[in-house]
Structures are given as C-alpha cells and as structure tokens.
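Structure ticket #2291
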Amino acid sequence: MKAAVLNAIPGQLEIEDVEIGEPGPREVLITTKAAGLCHSDLHHMEGKYPYPCPAVLGHESAGVVEAVGSMVTYVQPDDHVITCLSAFCGHCEECLSGNMSRCELKATELVRQPGEPPRLHRQDGEVVNQFLHLSSFAEQMLIHEHALVKIDKDMPLDRASLIGCGVTTGLGAVFRTAKVMPGESTAVIGCGGIGLSAIQGARIAGANKIVAVDMIESKLELAQTMGATHIVNASDTDAVAAVKDLTNGGVHHSFEAVGAKVTAEQAFKMLRRGGQATVIGMIPVGTTVEVHGPELLDEKTLTGSNMGSNQFRTDMPRFVEMYMDGRLRLDEMISKTITLEEINAGFEDMKSGHVARSVIAF
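Resolution: structure written out below.
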C-alpha cells in the first residue's frame, strides 16, 4: 500500500510502498477514505516532539472496515468508522474512572507483542513504526478495536475524519475539560481547526460572549461564521487588554489552541477571578509556562486538555449527530482536499497559517 513515511527528524514525508499485516484477534483492518492534516503531525516532523523513525504519520481519519480479527464483535466488514488516538485498554484505573483519554496501559497492551510480526514493515522486513496507534497517512490502517468508533453510514467520511482529532479535541475541551455553562464568557486563542471547534463548542454550550483571537483576518472571519461574537486581531492589538475590555474584566474560560508559551500565558492573564484557562495546543517539549503567582489567590486555574478529555465511543457519534442536524459546522472547516502525494505541500499551507484544515481523500 502507499503510505507517507517520516524517515528522519526534522524532515518531510516520503511516499513509499509499505506492507501491512493481517488482523490479529482484536485488530481491525480499515480502508482509509479520508485523513486530516493536523498540527500534531507537523510537531513530530519538526522534532518538537520525539518519535522513532521510520514511521507512517497521521491520526485524524475515517474509513471503512475491510476485515476484523477473530475476537472482534463491535464492528464488521463494511462498517464506517472514525479512528481515535485515545485508544483505551478498558481496565486500568483511568479507564475504569471514565478517563479513557488518559489510559495507562495502551502503550503496552494495544500494540503487537514481542515475537509477533509488526503491523507495518518494508518489503525487506524493516519495521515501520505505527504512529499513535493509527498511522492514517496510508491507504489502509491496521489498528486495535479500541482505537475506533462505528458511525452512521450517512455521515460523509471526509467530514467524519475531522472528528477523529481536531473537532473532538476542541469540543471536548469545552464540554468535558472546562465544562462551560450557559451564559458564561469565553475566549479562544488560535482559530485553526481545534480553535474553530472550541468556538463551536462554546456556541453549542450556550456561552454568551465568545471572543476569537488570531493574527490572520481570514481566520477571524471564519471564526465569526462558527459562532464567535467578537474578534480580536492580535497582530495589531494587545489581546489580553482587548479581551478584558470586551468581557468586563476577563472571561470565565479561555482556551489556548496554538501551542506556545506566550499564548498559554495570555490565556491565563485574560481570566476573571475564578476563571479557568485550558491549554489545548501542544507546547514544545522543554518549554516552561509562567504565571503571576499572586493571581492564584484569585482562584484562577491553568490546566491542560488531552484530546478534549474525551470518551470517544460515546462522544463521536454525538458529534456526528450534531453535524447531521446542522448544529456542528464541518463543511466550512475543510480548506482544501488533497491527494496523498500532495501531503508535504499541505503541511506548507498549514505553516503559512491560512488554512483551517486540509484533508487527504483516498
């Protein structure tokens, strides 16, 4: 099968023929239909987060089940599915507490064991590493059954792929991590795919003021179509001061969707007393985020959100329903549809900051 392989860090992806295995007892073989380009992939390509090479990247995807292992009963061939990197074992303390996105055992239990053939390899037998239990920049995926969710076949799979990471991360940060209440005020820093999803989450949750912050005017305009009630262009405005001015002294909830020290600190600074700043973005390894200590006496909170604190087996079908009934807007979030061979150009578009999401159609 064709796959986009990262052979060196930092580096671009190379289109290669990669061999894929047969499903083990609890594994599912999927024909990939769509895969979104996510900033998390770019972070690994640039070396901001380490990962062993060679590896097939990609983790935001949807497809059709081709074959299942002998112990799989949840899905069957021809089912439509969304994949999720929040694969779960189902029996560790975090899973049993309802925090499957923090599963403690997936790194050891949901992978092929020593002595078993690899899921991905080159024709000469060299192992190709699977990325975040998925590797969706490929024509097929071989994954554990706990890394997917079955969805309505009426759901367009290119739209569904976005739910696999960015949409669930943004919505979940609002619904599950921050638990935004109707009438509260919110600010979202960064209006890419995740930020736009957080804005939509705030709208669906019933927030009164939703302030979108970005440095690119076209993204701010898109944010307004997603539900932002106010916009702040941080390229020519003090974002913290502007948000405080719009919200009578600060927001109940701020969401950082950039992954940078300065924006994480701004998210904390724009809070009102008792407010919560939720960092969604992937801040590079080795970066320290600082807060002004005395402000903690105002009971302000700075927290992180891992994939929106999701319970994806229940969350994602609900998000599909939200799209189908018109509450969740995904059509506008797809800036470009590309081929696998155009993947590096897609990441260059991402770095320019002028696209919300590019999606590979297989």
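Closing remark: The two ends are 12 Å apart (CA to CA).
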